[in-house]
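Regression test case RT-17, inverse folding.

Input:
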């Protein structure tokens, strides 16, 4: 279905009231991000994505990319839409003006990215991977590589990819075997990579692959991995694409979802070797690649929100039209049934919490890179680091649930492909797996982000949430009283979970076993924190008075925040209970009897 409309009201509310867009726009270098410009960009983005990208969602699902003449041919319409996307300047919205970007806040680009992802996750993956490759090249590339590659990538004339996984390696990147042999001022790469998103296509004149590989004398394991830039077409003296490099997509994976996104098996060095150039320091490739991966993990969390929003909009529209049952002798649409309302409210409140958590975290990316106070910048980066596994993990787990609810609301029609409800469910299922499975995100949260720093970053987060709890106390509004009570209980659960883990930090068997429940406990609580902040803001705005449209928004926000507090925050008790049960039952059976 192509009738997606950006949830502009809630986006604006979150951007301005929770993520503090005006404060971000006041950071050095962001002076052009005036309220009028922000509004104009959001409006134009909504128009563009609803009209140009959203109609491709169903096309990509039913008419898959294929390989012809050793090149991937995308789904019909994708090439033309991508060129419109690039020509409109969406790719360079938040990128450096030194290389042709517009230099606008990262936070603003996040709202645009959400629209791209909701319109078509399959399409959005191409510019998403390009953005990540740009970030890695900006951070670690030589001046020569930046001068030759950044401008055409930022403009969207060239796209980028991330090549990590190999058949024998999976998530264990220490097992990477692709080799890079020095040859003068460059290297020649040999090997195979799998699961490479948009690894090949004919939509642009070149593709820039960032590839993990080993040099001949590299030490074993993760310490011996280097990062290389390998273009699909080698460059001529004038910087334009020249002869074909020895890298090809040799197969496409047949997948559960995101069918419009070609997932390629990439073969390097079938003959003379693929010419590549070292990015950053030799044997530091994994660390360099994480510059790309960490932002990608936040973007994948955003994908969880985006596909859930699309599924919610479709389920809501169906519920308003589908006639089923009767009341007082009159046939009624299913939106009048309380259980359907319950499911729709789960979807709505879930999306609102996910959006608030994603945007407020991404605002910290701007503060970390631009804030003139070094202490604020450092604290903002610490918050980004802490929240990255939570945003990636919790939002994508929620997406599995919310898109499933979208199918359920459709009833039997949801099981029929023609309605499109099942596509959102299938597309969402990969999100908890790629860019590091959610099990890996949980281990990152509990190991690197909690235990390694003794809980300091988490303590700072808990302190901020405690301040919000204090604001909720003594409120006269019935909604705020309920929200305050339920949020306070959830916050106590998170405190107890963190303390329990830190007391057992030396036992990796325990911490690894309870990591996922800690991640989900943190996710629900952080989502509840943002919904509580939204409710406090909405109440203040209502007391100040405002236009009719704003008043309806604020009253709706109080209801959705209350629903979240009553129906989603109680889940923190279950996750705390599972966490405090420890590892005994999890590890109780031997591997050959489980």
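Golden output:
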């Amino acid at each position: 279905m192509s009738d997606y409309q950006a949830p502009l009201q809630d986006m604006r509310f979150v951007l301005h009231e929770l993520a503090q867009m005006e404060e971000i726009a006041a950071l050095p270098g962001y002076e052009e991000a005036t309220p009028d410009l922000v509004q104009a960009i959001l409006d134009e983005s909504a128009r563009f994505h609803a009209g140009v990208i959203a109609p491709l969602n169903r096309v990509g699902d039913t008419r898959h990319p294929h390989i012809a003449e050793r090149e991937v041919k995308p789904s019909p319409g994708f090439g033309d839409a991508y060129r419109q996307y690039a020509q409109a300047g969406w790719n360079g919205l938040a990128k450096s003006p030194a290389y042709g970007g517009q230099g606008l806040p990262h936070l603003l680009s996040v709202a645009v990215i959400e629209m791209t992802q909701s319109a078509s996750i399959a399409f959005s993956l191409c510019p998403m991977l390009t953005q990540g490759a740009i970030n890695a090249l900006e951070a670690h590339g030589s001046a020569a590589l930046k001068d030759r590659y950044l401008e055409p990538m930022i403009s969207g004339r060239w796209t980028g990819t991330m090549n990590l996984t190999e058949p024998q390696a999976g998530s264990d990147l220490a097992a990477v075997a692709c080799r890079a042999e020095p040859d003068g001022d460059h290297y020649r790469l040999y090997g195979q990579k799998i699961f490479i998103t948009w690894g090949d296509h004919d939509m642009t004149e070149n593709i820039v692959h960032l590839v993990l590989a080993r040099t001949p004398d590299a030490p074993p394991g993760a310490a011996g991995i280097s990062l290389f830039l390998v273009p699909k077409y080698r460059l001529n003296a004038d910087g334009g694409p020249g002869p074909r490099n020895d890298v090809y997509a040799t197969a496409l994976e047949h997948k559960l979802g995101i069918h419009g996104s070609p997932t390629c098996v990439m073969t390097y060095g079938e003959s003379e070797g693929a010419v590549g150039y070292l990015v950053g320091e030799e044997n530091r490739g994994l660390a360099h690649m994480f510059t790309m991966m960490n932002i990608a993990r936040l973007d994948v969390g955003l994908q969880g929100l985006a596909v859930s929003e699309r599924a919610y909009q479709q389920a809501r529209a169906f519920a308003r039209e589908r006639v089923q049952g009767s009341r007082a002798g009159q046939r009624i649409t299913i939106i009048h049934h309380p259980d359907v309302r319950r499911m729709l409210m789960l979807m709505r409140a879930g999306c609102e919490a996910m959006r608030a958590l994603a945007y407020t975290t991404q605002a910290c990316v701007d503060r970390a890179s631009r804030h003139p106070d070094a202490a604020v910048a450092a604290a903002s980066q610490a918050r980004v680091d802490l929240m990255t596994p939570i945003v990636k993990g919790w939002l994508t787990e929620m997406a599995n649930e919310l898109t499933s609810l979208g199918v359920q609301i459709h009833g039997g029609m949801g099981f029929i492909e023609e309605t499109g409800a099942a596509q959102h469910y299938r597309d969402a299922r990969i999100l908890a797996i790629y860019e590091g499975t959610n099990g890996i995100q949980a281990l990152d949260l509990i190991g690197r982000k909690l235990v390694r720093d003794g809980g300091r970053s988490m303590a700072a987060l808990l302190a901020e949430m405690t301040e919000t709890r204090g604001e909720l106390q003594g409120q006269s509004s019935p909604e705020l009283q309920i929200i305050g009570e339920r949020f306070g209980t959830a916050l106590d659960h998170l405190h107890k979970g963190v303390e329990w883990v830190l007391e057992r930090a030396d036992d990796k068997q325990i911490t690894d076993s309870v990591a996922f429940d800690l991640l989900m406990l943190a996710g629900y609580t952080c989502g509840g924190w943002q919904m509580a902040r939204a409710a406090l803001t909405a109440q203040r705005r209502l007391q100040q008075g405002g236009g009719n449209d704003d008043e309806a928004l604020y009253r709706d926000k109080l209801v959705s925040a209350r629903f979240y507090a009553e129906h989603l925050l109680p889940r923190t008790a279950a996750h705390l209970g599972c966490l405090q049960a420890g590892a005994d039952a999890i590890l109780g059976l031997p591997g050959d009897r489980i």
